[in-house]
Amino acid sequence: MAKNLSRKDNDIFIQPGTHIHGKWNKNEYIVQRKIGAGMIGTVYLCRRKNKLVALKMSNKAMSMTTEVNVLKALNKVQDNRLGPFLLDVDDWITERGQKYSFYVMEYIKGKSLEEFIRRNGDEWIGVFLVQILEQLDQLHHSGWVFGDLKNDNLLISGSPPRIRFIDVGGTTKIGRSIKEYSEFYDRAYWYLGTREAEPSYDLFAVVMVFLTVFFPKKFKRTHHSHQLIIQKVNEIPALKPYRRCFHKAILGKYDTARQMKEDVLHALISRQSIQRFRRNHKTHLIVEAMIISILSGICFTVTYFLF
Predict the structure, then answer these.
(1) Catalytic residue numbers, as ranges
(2) Quick one: 125 exposed, middle or buried, by C-beta within 10 A (0-12, 13-18, 19+)?
(3) pTM of the predicted model, to two decimals?
(4) Last residue in a domain, options 106, 121, 142
(5) Same domain, residue pair 90 and 197
(6) pLDDT tens-digit profile of 130-145?
(7) Which of 35, 36, 188, 197 could form a disulfide with 145 if both were Cys (CB 3.0 to 4.6 A apart)?
(8) Rounded to whole angstroms, how far apart are CA atoms 268 and 298?
(9) Which of these three, 106, 134, 157, is where a domain ends?
């Protein structure tokens, strides 16, 4: 099977149909296709018996151990599915004697944020904002910053729909330097802060995530980045209820994700937002999603949508 594998830098290429045998746990996985790659390793959709799973392969054992520890920490957070469930951790020895570390995660099937909002309407923006901020708040309280927060690392799945993190490769201990990032979502790239792992780093990226929904081709930085990003936020009518929240996040004015979430909730219960929800034929499903989003508190907000 050696001919089925080649490597360039950090990306490991494995041909579909390759059988991966775990050295220690003896589980077997059949590669279906590549679904992602990053600085640490490559993720493949695999089949384990009759179940599809996501398998991440790397030659960087220490980095993989860190990611596994992050997933274990996230899986321990009660009532919050912050990341994919960790299913297996092992090594793979190829026929040529090459050793690779891998771990296996729950395969999350869903739609991108951009695709979901395009198909289902702008009314969902507030719901997903609250959901992602609630999850980030839980993550930050666990001592981690997501770091590489971008649209590629988020999926909408389930019914009622829920936003899920699907790659924890950039997750960094609070206080350390961000270890993996994507320029467009990185505040340091825009001259608007450092790459220190702190909650405000993730909150800046949240703004860029929702801007990317409306600017899929993105836009380039300038020496007046603050004014440029503010201008882009103000250009989108669907983001009008959240402009104040976004402006504060861009400037690093929030210390916690919970603070930003509370501001978003206040925007959602404004008269304009209430009227928008009342007119929408999908109100019931949106309310269900919102209830999930705010189970941690401020449950009285739901009553505004039920009148």
Answers:
(1) 148
(2) buried
(3) 0.83
(4) 106
(5) no
(6) 999 999 999 999 899 9
(7) 197
(8) 13
(9) 106
